[in-house]
Design goal:
- This protein is mostly beta strands.
- The protein contains no helices and 11 strands.
Length: about 120
Amino acid sequence: QVQLVESGGGLVQTGGSLRLSCAASGRTYPMGWFRQAPGKEREFVAAINRSGGGADYGDSVKGRFTISRDNAKNTVYLQMNSLKPQDTAVYYCAAVETRTAVATYYRPDDYKYWGQGTQVTVSS
């Protein structure tokens, strides 16, 4: 069983930055960040493979967000820069239960474990 705990959300102005953290218990797995705004479907934001050597991003965040991980701390980060009002959402981290080292995953159905979410609000 894997438990995921997100932190770092909050209120920021347009153009500002935030860093989200996701602390995981148990084994090291491929991880991802998703977000969901009110009335919208859950959206893929970023994913990182188990080794930390590969990452993938949703089109809406490419060039602004960076995913990274510290396997010694079993923690994944999402650095969010140049934030826009449309980035406002609840952000969730998630883990894929696989020992594959190099793959990243962008479909929510691939992820077995989910955190409780952290709210990010970007004011205009």
